[in-house]
């Protein structure tokens, strides 16, 4: 009852109909849970969330009445066995098949007059933005790594740090403690 009332209050403040987003994590360790936690936060704010994931991971999600995240399965073009045996082949196949499968999911939602407004995709999947643009919806990369990692990437990009970092090097980034490379 409380969650339903809160959802109605959020809609009233927003002055909009239903906001629906599709969240698409890269199905590897360290990427799913942060995006799932973020999805739960969105749901608590009255946003409707569809989690698009590959078949082996879809069976692990059980939506609860108190946290209604819809789970939709998309193809990654591989089997569980192929995924485990060769990561390079899996990633190549994933990048060939998953964009088409995700596109089909969004097309299906839009044909059902389901007003998807945004695709929130794992930052390791750069083609997510291309798919969002194709449908004229917002595309938002979700970074699962820590702020410190983003800061180091920024320093490398601007030439302040060089990569790869030599072993036993101390890295100084403004506002952070000294980091030792090992």
From TrEMBL:
<dbReference type="GO" id="GO:0080044">
    <property type="term" value="F:quercetin 7-O-glucosyltransferase activity"/>
</dbReference>
<protein>
    <recommendedName>
        <fullName>Glycosyltransferase N-terminal domain-containing protein</fullName>
    </recommendedName>
</protein>
<feature type="domain" description="Glycosyltransferase N-terminal">
    <location>
        <begin position="18"/>
        <end position="58"/>
    </location>
</feature>
<dbReference type="Pfam" id="PF26168">
    <property type="entry name" value="Glyco_transf_N"/>
</dbReference>
<comment type="similarity">
    <text>Belongs to the UDP-glycosyltransferase family.</text>
</comment>
<dbReference type="GO" id="GO:0080043">
    <property type="term" value="F:quercetin 3-O-glucosyltransferase activity"/>
</dbReference>
<dbReference type="InterPro" id="IPR058980">
    <property type="entry name" value="Glyco_transf_N"/>
</dbReference>
